[in-house]
Write a structure and sequence with these properties.
Elements: E1 2-6, E2 9-12, E3 17-24, E4 31-38, E5 45-50, E6 57-59, E7 67-72, E8 77-82, E9 91-99, E10 113-114, E11 118-123
Parallel strand pairs: 2-11
Antiparallel strand pairs: 1-3, 3-8, 4-5, 4-9, 5-6, 7-8, 9-10, 9-11
Length: 124
């Protein structure tokens, strides 16, 4: 299983960015997908998650209203659209997959597969 995240970069506060994560080696269409992030010296933080068909989404408190998770099962890809970025959004962003489930969870321990991460840096 491979989860390839991309789209990170250096942006200014207030800018937007879209992350992508393309999966292979698993049944993407029956997998819940999540995004997590980790800044240096901090614990991993839940960002967003989406159910297998996109019918249910969850968001962390710090990003709700600014970030939107979506997926395209035909492309085996999950997206994270981020707007109104803040310096505190600076982190490595990881996508994760919870295969074969109808539920969606913010618990990192429920996700079996993880991508390598993509760095988002927001300057003030």
């Amino acid at each position: 299983v491979q989860l390839q995240a991309s789209g990170g970069g250096l942006v200014q506060a207030g800018d937007s960015l879209r992350l992508s994560c393309t999966a292979s080696g698993l049944t993407f269409s029956t997998s819940a997908m999540g995004w997590f992030r980790q800044a240096p010296g901090t614990e991993r933080e839940f960002v967003a998650a989406i159910s297998w068909n996109g019918g249910m989404t969850l968001y962390g408190d710090s990003v709700r209203g600014r970030f939107t998770i979506s997926r395209d099962n035909a492309k085996n890809t999950v997206y994270l659209q981020m707007i109104s970025l803040k310096p505190e959004d600076t982190a490595v962003y990881y996508c994760a997959a919870d295969e074969g489930t109808l539920v969606v969870t913010p618990e990192a321990s429920e996700y079996r597969y993880w991508g390598q991460g993509t760095l988002v840096t927001v300057s003030s």
